[in-house]
Structures are given as C-alpha cells and as structure tokens.
Predict the 3D structure of the following.
Amino acid sequence: MHLVPATVPQLTVKLYHVAVAAGIAVGLIAAVDILADRNPLNRLAMTDAIEIGALTLLASVGTDLAECLILPGLVVGLAELMATAEVLIARHSDWRTLPRFDPLDMEILRTAPKAIMIGLVLYGVLLTGFTGGAVAGTGAAFYIFSRVNRPRYEEWRGMESISGLGWALWVLGFSLFFLYPKEWLLALLLAGTGGILVKVGPKLSLFGYVMGYDVRAGSGHVPER
Amino acid sequence: MYPSGKVFAIVPLGDIVPYLSTVNAIILATLVAVLLLPILSKTDVYVEVDHKRPKIEAKIVAPREDRIKAALALVSTLAAVGVVTTGDVFNFTLFLSLLGMSNMGLIGTTVEDDFALECAFNYGLMCLIASLPLFGGAALILAATGTLSLHELMKLPRGAGGWTITYAKILLTTGVLGEAGVGPFYAVKVDSFRRIWGRYAFVIHLTTLLTFSRYLEILSALP
C-alpha cells in the first residue's frame, strides 16, 4: 500500500520510524525512572512524561487527521493527570501544616503589570479570534497574579455576564455565516472579535475569581486577599 | 463482513459512524441493566464489624458521597456505551480513557479512607501509563492504513498493513489491558463489594469486562 503522496520527500518518510522509536524510548525511559524513584510526586511527573511519548507517536503520523487527534489526546491526558493529582493532593495534603508566605511588596509589582496588561490586551484585540483571546486573557491573568492586593470576589462578578454576552455574539456570528453568507465580514467581526475574544479573554481572567475562594469548605483556611 | 453479526442501525454522524450490531446490542442491553441496578437498589446503612472485640457499628452513608458515586457511575456507563457503539478506533481509545478516569474516581471518592486514595492514585498512574500504548496503537493503525474508521478497516484485505498493524495490535491490547483491564483488580483491592458502595463496584467490573469484549470485536475487524 502506498499511502504517502509522491510530493513528500523520502527523508520525511524515513523519519517516521525514528519518531516512533523516539516516542517509545521516551515512554521506556520514564518507566525506568518510575521504577528507580518510588516517590509519589516523581511517579506522577514521570507518567506525564509518558503521556508526551504518546503524543509523539500521534504527531509522528503528520497528517491533518493526526493533527486533529492530538488535541483530544492532549485533553484526555491532561484530565487524567489532573484527576490523579487531585487524588494525590487529597491523600497527602494537610492544610494546617502547609507553609505560608507573605506576599512580596515591591513597587514594580504594582506598576509594571498594568502596562503589560494594557499592551497584551491591545495586541490581543489586534490578533482577534482564539489567539487574540488567549493573549488578552494572559494579560489580564498576569495582572491579577502579580497584584499585591487582589481584587475582591465582588469586583469580578460582572465577568460572567460579559462571557455570556460574548458567547451570544459568537452564536449570532456563526449562524450569520450560514443564513446570510454575503454578510461574511460582519459575521467574522461578530464571531472573531466580539465573540471568541470576549469569550476567551474573560475565561482566562476568571482565574482571579477562583483565587479568592477556598474550595475545601470547612477547612478553616481562607487565603489572604 | 461485520464480525459482530448483522448491523441493525447506523448513525451517520459525519466521519465517525457509530453502529449497532447483534453483539453490540447485547452488550448495550447488559450495560443499561447494570446501570439500573444501583439506581433501583437503595441501601444506605453501612454495617461495620470489628473482629477484635465484639462490636458492631452501623452508620448511615453520607449522601454526598453517594451522589458523587452515582454521578461517576453514570459517566462510566455512558463512556462504556460510547466504547460499545463507536465506529472509530480513536474514539474507542478516547472513550476508554474516560471510562478509566471515572472508574478511578469511583474508587477514589471513598470518604475517610487513605488506602482507597492510594489505590485510586495507582490506578490513575496505570491509566496514564496505558495511554501511551493506547494512543500509540491508534496512531500506528492510522499510519499503516490511512484510516481509523472501522467500516473502512473491515473492507481492507488481510495483511494489508504489514508488520505495523501487528505491532499496533500488540500496543492496543496492552493499552486496553492497562486502561480498563486492571480496574477490577483495584476495585477488589479496596474491598469494594463489602462496602456501602458495593453496587457501584458492579459498574466497575461490568463496564471493564464488556469493554474488553467489545475490544475483541475491534481486534477481529482490523486487517
């Protein structure tokens, strides 16, 4: 069977075997490390390395379909890793003995994030779409992470409704593509700029929303704002 | 042509075409029956027996734990339904990962039990490690035949993929064993049948078992 088109150079075809061998080798090396060090945290980290080997095997196929398969593979791997890490946290963590740190009080932490956030959000608006939303959201999240006095929970309450509005805009723009294909520019602006940007941006900045909470109710540990 | 007998129904869902054949329908009926078992049964008194000195403790199970377990059992069964009906090898692996994760949750959500958490952690690590041969096998099938659809793979002549398909079969079997096959062992290890959530232990056992019988059908469909 000849599945590879003639335009693909022979070197790339030959590299497939190397890539498969590399993926298996990554898995084996990580497995040997698990055998060598039985510390639970090390085992968790090394299984993540094995996951990277699985992604290598997927990526080595190098077609459009393989590209589509990497994303669900990555998501499933991340979900499994998070679930396993949650079990590890529940097993070993003790909220009373966790070390506490005072927040660093430096002037640069108060002034620089604002400028970086404005720059990143403006750049994200220029980029539009998923990438722009990710860049803008990263800016907002960076602003929240580096602030000494974090915004209170009540101040971030509006973010949910903004995210909902963004989603509505995205649906509107998407259906406009099908109903009136001639208005494609308006649909693109609605779905790309108004929709996904506004949707992804607030979603990443919702980190700040979560940080004010203590998820484990009744543990008596409330983080400082 | 289909190794599982007559095909009853096909869901033409774009690229991925789930189908229902004789064997699949039997497996599906068993799965739904297994899901009905914990829903219909209502046992909420947990009897704990201490053998060192004569003492019998009866305690009511926390309703929160029971609700979490019910939700996870539902997710597990739905994932098994996806595994059974799917017509795509990669979809099969993804649903299998979901199945392993929810079974891990079923074991790990036992309240105030460090040993159950330890077992769930080990099972989670096993699932993560098994995802390398699982996804790797699917990727090798894609590389050898150019398709992942079972309907297309059945039409290929025997030995179409060469050594790659043989290797992919070995990897896929290892992955299925690691992802679903070890589930019952960990469920037995935490003594799940004698616990209050014993009825959800049935879900772990039967979903993994039926998943494996579905995998045998996929294995016979590969060239």
The longest helix of chain B spans residues 114-145. Chain B has a mean pLDDT of 83.
